[in-house]
Each structure stands twice: as C-alpha cells, then as structure tokens.
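Priority: medium. Attachment 1 of 2:
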C-alpha cells in the first residue's frame, strides 16, 4: 500500500508505511488520455448528504443502508490493508460519476497532527480550574484522566473509481495538496492506494442539501454563501488553477454555521494546460480582420452547415457539468481561463435569485447555447461567439435580437412584476438590485470583462454580510428601500 504522508504526533511511532518501488503505477503523469469532455451525472441523480445530528452517527445509519452499499463498505474495508484499524465506515454520503464518498470515524485521530481540524481549534477553549477541589472533584478528575473522552472525529473517504485514469486521480490529489492551506477549500488529509484502488481522506464537512435551503435564502444569506465560495475561488485562481466544476454539490455549505467548503477537484486543471492560441486573446482589430477574412465572413449568413467541411474539427476542454458551462467552453475556446468558474458561480446565484433549480436544463452544448442566447439575445451572443472565432446563426423564432435583462428573468421566475404604471407589482428592492448588478458582472459573456474572484470580494454585494458587524456605518440608502421584500 502506498500512501501520502500524514504527519504523526512528535515522538509517536507512525504506522508502518510500505513504499512501493518507483516503477509502481502511482508514478504517473504522462498519461496520454485526452479528455475533451466529461459528462457528469445530472444534479438530480447525485446522492447528496443531508444535515445530520452531529453526535450520534450510530449503527442506525449503517443498518438503514441498502445491502449493496453495506457490501461495498465491507469490501472497501477488506481491500485496503490496515483500513479497519484506521477508519470505521459509517455511511455513504455521496456518489458521483467518478467516486463514492463515505462518512467514517477517524480511529487514529490522536496519533497525528491534525492541522485540518478547524472545529477542534475553535473548540479548544481555556477552562478555568475549580477554585478549590473537593474530594469528589478530585475523583472525577482522575476518572476523566483514566478514560479520556472526546467527540468522535469524522472524515470523508472518497473512493475513486478504479476506472478513472491514473493521470486524473494524480491530478486531483496533487491539486488538493497544492491548495491545502486555502481558506474555504476542503483540505486533503491523506490518501492511500492499494493495487488499483485509491482513496482520498478529507475532513468531514457537515452540510445541507442545496435544494432544501436555496429557496429560503435571504439576500444577506446569499451574499454570505457567495462570499465563502468566492473566497475559495480567489485562492484557487491565485494558484492559476481552474476548478471547472463549480456547482452546488461541489460547494458544501452548512446554513446553520454559514460555512462552506469547495470540494471535488476531479476536473480541475492548471490554467494554460493544453492551451492553443484563441482569438479571444487578440486585439479587437485582429479579431475583426480575421472574422472578415474567414469563409463565413466572406460568404455571409447561411443556413445549415457545409456538407463537405474540410476544416479540422475544433477541440477544446469542455469538462464540466451541463447547465454550468461558461459560453467560452460551449464555443470551444482553446485558451480558457479561471473566469469560467466565475460564470458557474453566477449560475448558482441566478438559481438562488430565480428560485429555480436547475436553472439551465439542456441536453447538450448546442441546447445550452440556445438557452443562453434566449436570455442574452442574438446580438450579444454572436459577438460572444466571434470572440472565439465562432459564427452563430439561428432561425429559432424565440431567440430575440436584444434578449432580456436578468432583472426581468428573476422577476418572471419568481412570479413577480415590477408593477409598471399601476405600481401593483413587487419590484426588486435595493439589495436585490445590487445582487443582480453583481450577477451581471459574473455572467458577462466576455470572459475578459467578467469580474474576477478578487474583484468580486470587493463588490458591495459581497460586502453585505459586513453590514451586521460592529463598526459598519449604514449608508443613506435611497427610497428604493421602501419597496416590498419577498
Ligand atoms: N469532505 C466532505 N465532507 C462531507 N461530504 C463530502 C465531502 N466530500 C464530498 N462529500 C460528499 O460527496 C459528494 C461527492 O463528492 P465529490 O468530491 O464531489 O465527488 P465526485 O467527483 O464523485 O462528484 C459531495 O457532493 C458531497 O455530498
Ligand atoms: Mg462532485
């Protein structure tokens, strides 16, 4: 068994780690596999964890699990030597396209340095000693010393499917390792491999199912949620890493503590990996000249597609989840940047504000382009395509030239109106308008103009949570604050 080091407590004997020879299959990195797309299971199919009571993770959960899950858990314990001494599997908490995630108790927690344990750090408060000890106190004290009791420590065990390519597994673990000290990013505690089975050990993070809380989020709740997500994105992007799969199931959020962590770096990559020059990185003049000289530019608008197209097909990384892919990914930009994660975060915000999940529900990339074009209109969408050398033509009658603004979309999807002349509607209030203004910055079709995570954290919308803090001086908000809040 090979494992990634977990730092033992000083002067403690670490358990024996067998290091495999260097020829071993964990030594990878030049896997030739070219992944241009990862179709992930739809959100609806993903098994998501629900809020559990923090204490009793008992046999109740185990016995309630379906037989095949119990069998899989037993197999995992059998397959990895020494596993049962280290972890007690409790239940399955997630199942995706590439892994199954279990909740487990960390049985050897006390043997290691556990810098990852934020809860423990916060719980370790100084307790004053009793002023004078009675005999009973002393007895209690000694009994406590004989049997040290602490709350069980939980971890999430991510069993990566053996069908995943070694390069992909290595990539995920390596990026998690690089990002281990980043705020709001779930750190990697350790990882094991035995033959072809790799498991990653992460701190267990209590979270609720997005579908259970997003409809009840106030604007401040939404700002707190996004502040946490953008804090994670800021550090990930500062490392020039693209997450590529920002969506609610990959951002574990606990509405009770208002904390969130970003997980699942299975599709993440370093910016510039396999990149080839794309027109979007050229000046507008160069882009215009290239568009005019192109076959499409010279032939003018055409319906259909050429029968004998001799041009090589365009290849670009399209990894991600449908409904969350940025327009540049759909247009197969060959020089994608960290901004694609900002678009996906924008889709989460749009979902919360519109109270619709999933907001986009396309079967493929062309349908996804149609959905986006319906909102933004053909004029902006054509311009967005040209940025990456793509000509967009459509005869779909429901796609208008100018599209709709996001404020309208949100009003419609929440069955509200701005009231128009009769003033009977429920228009957006000042904070909601601020949220929509922020949303427009996240969902800019042009990635170079889209807000960055660092800029986002400076935006007034993401500063809303600070309003409740001492020292914040309320600004003179205008009359719009009198409107009804829903
Ligand atoms: N550290 C964790 N704490 C609690 N639950 C987790 C943790 N990591 C993952 N999960 C649960 O498992 C699910 C799948 O994990 P993820 O890393 O996204 O795997 P996949 O690549 O299969 O999507 C998540 O949506 C979440 O519900
Ligand atoms: Mg996932």
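Attachment 2 of 2:
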């Amino acid at each position: 068994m090979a494992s990634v080091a977990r730092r033992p407590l000083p002067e403690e004997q670490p358990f024996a780690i067998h290091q495999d020879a260097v020829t071993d299959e964990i030594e990878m990195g030049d896997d030739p596999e070219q992944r241009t797309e990862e179709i992930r299971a739809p959100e609806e199919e993903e098994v998501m964890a629900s809020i559990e009571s923090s204490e009793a993770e008992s046999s109740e959960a185990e016995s309630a699990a379906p037989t095949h899950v119990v069998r899989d858990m037993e197999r995992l314990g059998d397959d990895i030597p020494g596993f049962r001494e280290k972890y007690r599997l409790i239940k399955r908490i997630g199942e995706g396209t590439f892994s199954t995630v279990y909740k487990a108790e960390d049985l050897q927690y006390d043997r290691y340095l556990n810098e990852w344990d934020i809860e423990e750090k916060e719980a370790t408060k100084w307790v004053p000693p009793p002023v004078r000890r009675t005999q009973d106190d002393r007895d209690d004290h000694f009994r406590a010393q004989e049997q040290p009791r602490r709350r069980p420590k939980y971890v999430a065990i991510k069993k990566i499917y053996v069908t995943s390519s070694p390069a992909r597994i290595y990539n995920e673990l390596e990026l998690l390792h690089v990002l281990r000290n980043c705020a709001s990013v779930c750190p990697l505690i350790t990882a094991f491999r035995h033959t072809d089975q790799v498991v990653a050990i992460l701190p267990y993070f209590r979270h609720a199912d997005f579908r259970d809380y997003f409809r009840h989020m106030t604007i401040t709740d939404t700002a707190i949620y996004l502040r946490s997500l953008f804090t994670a994105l800021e550090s990930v992007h500062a490392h020039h890493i693209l997450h590529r799969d920002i969506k609610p199931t990959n951002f574990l959020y606990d509405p009770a503590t208002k904390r969130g962590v970003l997980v699942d770096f299975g599709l993440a990559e370093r910016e510039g990996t396999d990149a080839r020059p794309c027109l979007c990185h050229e000046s507008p003049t160069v882009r215009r000249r290239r568009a005019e000289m192109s076959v499409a530019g010279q032939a003018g608008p055409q319906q259909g597609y050429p029968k004998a197209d001799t041009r090589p097909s365009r290849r670009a990384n399209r990894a991600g989840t449908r409904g969350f892919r940025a327009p540049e990914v759909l247009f197969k930009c060959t020089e994608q940047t960290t901004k694609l994660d900002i678009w996906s975060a924008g889709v989460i915000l749009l979902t919360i504000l519109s109270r619709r999940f999933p907001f986009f529900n396309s079967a493929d990339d062309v349908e996804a382009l149609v959905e986006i074009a319906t909102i933004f209109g053909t004029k902006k969408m054509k311009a967005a395509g040209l940025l990456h050398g793509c000509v967009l033509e459509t005869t779909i009658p429901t796609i208008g030239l100018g599209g709709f603004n996001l404020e309208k979309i949100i009003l419609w999807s929440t069955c509200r109106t701005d009231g128009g002349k009769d003033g009977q509607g429920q228009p957006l209030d000042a904070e909601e308008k601020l949220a929509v203004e922020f949303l427009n910055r996240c969902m800019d079709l042009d990635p170079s103009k889209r807000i960055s995570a660092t800029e986002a954290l400076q935006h007034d919308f993401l500063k809303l949570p600070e309003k409740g803090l001492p020292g914040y001086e309320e600004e003179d908000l205008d009359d719009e604050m009198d409107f009804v809040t829903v």
